[in-house]
Amino acid sequence: MMTTIKLPPPQTDLAFPLMNAFALRRTRRKWLDETISEQEISNLLWAACGITRPKTKRAKSRRTVPSACNSQEIRVYVAMESGLFLYYETLHQLEEIHSEDIRQDIGTQKMMRSAPLGLVYVADFLRMKSIFFKNDEQKMFTAAADTGFISQNVYLYCAAAGLSTAILGLVNRSKLHKRMWLGEHQTIVYTQVVGRSL
Ligand SMILES: Cc1cc2nc3c(=O)[nH]c(=O)nc-3n(C[C@H](O)[C@H](O)[C@H](O)COP(=O)(O)O)c2cc1C
Question: Cα(78) to centroid of ligand 1, in Å?
């Protein structure tokens, strides 16, 4: 049976000066051998692309990040020791994809494999229905920009929460694609590792 992890509500009133977060934001490639708590994962994923305005009869939901035509085409997958999970932001929960530990394939640099948490930003082209997306190249440009917003939110939360993080372009995408059981309409844009700072 597939596991569902119902995350605790994000601590949206957590205080940390925004300007300090900008000043402290850094790519850090070292971390303690410690797990990240469910509360931290909740905060981190909500910062990444949580819902700030639920959908109504007339309007689609809104996230903490913008996306072209509000496509919300980037899905965040979470690789942990216990398996691979997909974040469902509307329910604020994680759904298990499978129970394999795929963190060694998050990046090609050896040091990245020891990170407690791997995030994978996957573009779902089926969600890019607007007539403005004329071809796959335009979809890729958009997906890359939209991933950047998500990644930066994760960077800023990490800066505020004493976590180390690095976005990764050095990824064997075809290998990871297979290990994640993704379909043809899904493309891995970037990955990002997270751990507790030394
Ligand atoms: C799109 C992108 C891809 C990156 N890929 C990697 C990577 O594969 N491995 C890595 O160690 N750092 C990677 N980085 C991190 C950069 O090396 C880092 O942001 C840069 O050295 C500036 O450091 P700072 O983020 O601390 O300001 C990447 C950054 C970006 C924006």
Answer: 19
